[in-house]
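ok so i was messing around last nite and threw this chain in just to see what happens. nothing serious, just curious
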Amino acid sequence: MINNLLTEQLSSWETARNNYAALSGVQVKELDVNGIPYKVQFNPARIVSSGAKVDAKSIRERKCFLCPANLPPVQKGIPFEGHYNILVNPFPIFPRHLTIPETEHVDQRIAVRFSDMLDLAQALSEYTIFYNGPKCGASAPDHAHFQAGNKGFMPIEKAWRSQIAGKIADYKDASLWYLDDAPRATLVIESSGKDTAEKLFGLIYRSLPVKPGEEEPMMNVLAMYETGKWVVFIFPRAKHRPACYTAEGDANLLSSPASVDLGGVFITPVEKDFLKITAGDIAQILSEVCLSASDFQQLRQHIKEQI
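result:
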C-alpha cells in the first residue's frame, strides 16, 4: 500500500518526483568519528528543513504545512489508526521517505504517542520510524508528527550491537543497553513486548531533565521492528543547534542535527559545508548537542535506580 502511494505521488507530483530523482545524484562521503561510522550527504533540497525558522514568532506567522487544509492538493495520504496521515515527504533524505502527521494541529510531544510510534514501527516493518523533539530538529514543532525512512540507510541500524558498552538493566521481556559511541550518547531498548517497551521508555523519559520553559525533555528517537522485537534508540539532547550553525565566516556550518544525523547520516544542504566537514567537526557538533559523558553516566545511574 505504501509502495503504491509512493508510485502514485511520484507520478502525479512534480516537486516530489524531481526531488526523488535528484537523490540519485546526491553526493555522499564516509567518515570515521572515534571509531563510529558516519556518512555525510550533500542534499540541497533539505535546506527547507535544516534552515527552518522554529522560533515562536516565525511559527505564528506561517501556515502549518502539516495541517490537512494546507497540504498541496496533489498530496495524498493513507490514514493510520484514525488520527494519523501517512504522506510521502517531498524533500527526501531516504529513497523512501514518509512524514506521518497527526490529523489535528497539536504540539510535537512524544510521551502521549510513543505507543503509536511502536505501532507504526510494527505496521511499517520495512521502515525505521523517527521522532524529532520540538527543539531537536523538528521543522514543525507546532504539529505532532513522525517520519519514516527505509531500513538499512542509517549506520546505527546495523552497527549498534558492535557498539554496546553495557547493559543498564533487564526488565521483563526487554533489555536496556547503552552504547560506547561518545560524543553521541545512545540508549537502546530491545523488547519483544510492547507494554514493556512503553514502561521502559516512560522510565527514561521521567529520568531526563526538562529545561525551564520547555514541555518535554530534549531527545531524538528511532524505532524499528524486526524478528518479533522492537529496537528503540533514544538520543538524549543537551542543545538544539551547535555553535557553528550561527557562526560567522569560515566557522559557519549549517548543521541542525536531528534523528537521521544522530543515526549516522549527517545532512548538509550547502555544498561548501559538505566539502569541508570533517570527522572532527562531527565530533564537535555531537559533543555540543548530546549529553556529556558525566551527565550520561548520571542518567544511566538514575534509570537503574528506578527499575
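not much to say yet. The chain has one domain: 25-63+113-306.
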